[in-house]
Write a structure and sequence with these properties.
Elements lengths: L10 H5 L4 H6 L2 E2 L3 E2 L5 E10 L4 E10 L5 E5 L4 E8 L2 E7 L6 E7 L8 E6 L4 E7 L3 E10 L27 E2 L2 E2 L4 E12 L2 E3 L5 E2 L20 E3 L5 E7 L11 E7 L7 E2 L13 E6 L5 E6 L11 E6 L14 E3 L7 E6 L5 E8 L2 E8 L5 E5 L3 E7 L5 E8 L2 E9 L4 E4 L15 E7 L5 E7 L10 E7 L17 H6 L2 E7 L8 H5 L8 H15 L7 E11 L1 H10 L9 E5 L15 H6 L8 H6 L13 E6 L7 H13 L4 E6 L9 H17 L21 H7 L1
Parallel strand pairs: 35-36, 35-37, 37-38, 38-39, 39-40
Antiparallel strand pairs: 1-3, 2-3, 3-4, 4-5, 6-7, 7-8, 8-9, 10-11, 11-14, 12-13, 14-15, 14-16, 17-18, 18-19, 19-20, 21-22, 22-23, 23-24, 25-26, 26-27, 27-28, 29-30, 30-31, 31-32, 33-34, 34-36
């Protein structure tokens, strides 16, 4: 039976201090980009109207001294805006009819007579990077290239009469799209100043030769951080998967350097020279301020996407790669048990700055290039972007927390003072950091495991609150003190729940050994950690006084969805009134229907045919005869990481067993629900489901879902571990 969107929110939603509509319609502000003088910055802000059912986007100018913001370009069809000087900007827009992209120059004064077109590119432009010099502006952007190396313009492409696609190698599909003959590439060009106007007299140059096997940015999540331009405008550093290696089985990628004019072929910077050299994924290449060194991140192990990123420095000769000698890349901060994700040089050339997960935060660090000593620069909340202002003592940060959506801030590193440049949206102003509490408990390994408790802003002592127990995906990921429009614990707290978010074995930010501990243990140590978390909160923490453990639900996505299906057949599943599984795993034996095969091959310690027992050991489908708890299944049709058949199989079993269940299908979403209207439906359906099977304090109680046949004994699980 097909059930349409549940239109009625329960009374708790109507009276809540924060609703899904609030979160989804609020302005989403990008990281601000400052001009070279550090006086002004530009950022975009997008909002969605559930009344008009459309999204709007504006570009805004931010005065960094006063925090005053003014609308710059109200046109939502502008794709990028970047600085070409302290008082002029370059913006791009796409012409829908022919798919071309125009480069426009505009003064910050918004004097219309000063706006002019500088160039037209015959295709889409993404990840645009600019390097303004004296009389030129060098640029590099990413786009798809046709097999012959030319810029691919889908609006002008020939449409075949047949729809069949033939493959003889992997990937067939990746993330949410089937692979095609067109590949990601980097294109470069130059705007020259003539008679006070910038113009371009040639088409962009493809820096990645056709048939070379090079692709950048690295799909599916690569972007502008995958390449950078040298300060003199002569070279480009970029990362690409290593040609010749099967991308489905290998994570290895290398850093390459190529002249910006494409006059020489790209040269690898960190080609492995033996088993002792790093073999894994490279990322975030960036030139030093003098252009004589390149810093980048690299993992040691090929085939392991969650290995620790280490910082490497490669010193370049006078002519750079291809024009002078360069030294082998040297690792710095080798003893620093943190895995950074972004990297930038400080203007002094003596330090690099990086962000990384650490104890439930995404912190900002300074690392000495000479000594490798790392120190925390900002240790609160989660920093998602940063830029040095003139001189380097002050920084422009993009940051959020569990109780505040992303905004822009100025950090003075000399005294660690922080200045907010933007106010929180009105519906967030009642939220506060006091709602969030860190807690620690003894986990499966005997060591400490960390989690968050998120309470309602109107929390009252003496009351009992229902518990929403969140299980994160990855599995090598973590709940952070950061904002989300998809899985937002404070939104559930404001709906009258106590949200619990635990980072069990396998989570990032607690040392690499903790991350690695999930290998071969998908349903082992993490399950025990989660079980011990509930026990600790119920018996030792003061939360036992305000959490109604007889009215608890559990929710998870991806690996968290796997764990929902797994615990459904075990004792922990009986502690919850209802379960929610988003894009989860029904059976670990189906991992080869995914695309990045190196992932299960690492985590399950081999292939399905070489170590079938490793896949079977933690298979949720082994215990389906013990499933009893009402469960909601959500799945996106375009999820090729965990195909929709996983969700359908779980729902079929629930229905056949007579267990109350609901299936929410999104034909136009991937592993994530990204469209605002779909996201509102997601939140509405999930909240209705968990409210249906629980009761608030003072309401008539419903009996919990109990397994009358006494489900799998705890001893069986202990024996398996």
């Amino acid at each position: 039976m097909l059930l349409r969107l549940t239109t009625a929110f329960l009374s708790v939603a109507a009276a809540a201090a924060l609703t899904p509509e609030d979160v989804l319609s609020a302005p989403r502000r990008s990281a601000a980009e400052a001009n070279s003088g550090g006086t002004l910055a530009v950022y975009s802000s997008s909002t969605y109207s559930f009344t008009e059912h459309k999204q709007s986007r504006s570009w805004n100018l931010l005065d960094l001294s006063t925090g005053a913001s003014s609308a710059l370009f109200p046109h939502s069809n502008l794709k990028t805006v970047s600085w070409v000087s302290d008082d002029s900007l370059l913006f791009t827009n796409v012409t829908a009819s022919d798919g071309t992209t125009s480069f426009w120059i505009a003064p910050t004064s918004q004097n219309e007579t000063g706006i002019y077109k500088a160039a037209t590119v015959d295709g889409p432009v993404s990840d645009l990077q600019l390097l303004p010099l004296k009389d030129t502006v060098h640029f590099v952007f990413s786009s798809l290239a046709s097999p012959n190396g030319t810029l691919y313009n889908p609006a002008k492409a020939h449409a075949p009469h047949a729809s069949g696609q033939v493959y003889e190698s992997l990937f067939v599909r990746h993330w949410d799209a089937y692979t095609t003959a067109e590949k990601s590439s980097l294109f470069s060009g130059t705007l020259s100043l003539t008679s006070s106007r910038y113009t371009s007299t040639s088409s962009p140059t493809n820096l990645l030769p056709p048939f070379s096997g090079l692709e950048s940015p690295v799909q599916p999540f690569g972007g502008a951080a995958d390449f950078s331009i040298s300060p003199d405008g002569r070279r480009v550093a970029f990362v690409s998967k290593t040609p010749g290696l099967n991308p489905a089985n290998n994570t290895q990628s290398l850093v390459y350097v190529v002249p910006l004019d494409g006059s020489r072929k790209p040269q690898p910077l960190n080609l492995p020279v033996g088993q002792g050299s790093p073999q894994g994924a490279s990322s975030a290449p960036v030139f030093s301020p003098d252009g004589r060194a390149i810093a980048f991140l690299q993992m040691a192990m090929n085939g392991y996407e969650a290995d620790r990123n280490q910082i490497y420095i490669s010193r370049q000769g006078p002519g750079g790669v291809g024009g002078g000698a360069s030294t082998a890349a040297i690792a710095i901060a080798g003893a620093w048990d943190v895995s950074p994700g972004t990297l930038q040089w400080h203007p002094d050339g003596k330090h690099v700055f990086a962000t990384a997960d650490s104890v439930g935060r995404h912190k900002l660090y300074r690392i000495s290039v000479s000594t490798g000593v790392a120190e925390e620069v900002w240790d609160r909340h989660s920093v998602s972007g940063f830029q040095f202002l003139s001189g380097g003592d002050k920084m422009l940060l993009h940051m959020s927390s569990l109780t505040a959506s992303p905004g822009n801030f100025i950090l003075d590193t000399s005294n660690k003072s922080m200045k907010a440049l933007q106010e929180q949206p009105e519906h967030e102003k009642h939220l506060n950091n006091g709602q969030v509490e860190d807690f620690w408990f003894a986990g499966a390994n005997g060591g400490k495991v960390h989690g968050f408790i998120v309470r309602p802003s109107a929390f009252e002592k003496g009351r009992k609150y229902r518990m929403a127990f969140f299980i994160h995906g990855g599995p090598q990921g973590a709940w952070l003190d950061s904002w989300s429009t998809r899985w937002n614990p404070v939104l559930f707290a404001e709906q009258g729940w106590i949200a619990i978010a635990v980072n069990p074995t396998g989570s990032t930010g607690y040392g690499q050994a903790f991350v690695d501990g999930i290998q071969g243990q998908w349903g082992g140590k993490p399950y025990i950690d989660l079980e011990l978390a509930v026990k600790y909160l119920q018996t030792e923490h003061e939360a036992r006084d305000y959490i109604d453990f007889d009215n608890a639900v559990a929710l998870g996505a991806s690996y968290g969805g796997y764990m929902i299906n797994y615990l459904q057949g075990l004792p922990l599943g009986r502690k919850f009134r209802a379960l929610v599984c988003h894009d989860g795993v029904f059976s670990t034996l189906n991992q080869y229907s995914s695309e990045e095969l190196y992932f299960p091959q690492h985590d399950f310690e081999g292939t399905l045919w070489s170590n079938r027992a490793g896949y079977e050991r933690w298979d949720p489908a082994r215990n389906i005869k013990h499933w009893k708890t009402p469960q909601m299944i959500i799945h996106g049709e375009r999820d090729y990481r965990l195909p929709v058949s996983e969700g359908l199989a779980a729902f079929n079993v629930l229905q056949e067993l007579g267990i109350p269940s609901r299936f929410l299908h999104f034909p136009d979403e991937n592993h994530w629900v990204l469209k605002p209207e779909n996201s509102l439906q997601w939140h509405t359906e999930v909240l209705e489901w968990i409210n249906r099977w629980t009761t608030k304090e003072g309401e008539d109680s419903n009996p919990p879902a109990q397994d009358k046949q006494e489900t799998v004994a705890q001893g069986q699980l202990s024996q398996e571990l």
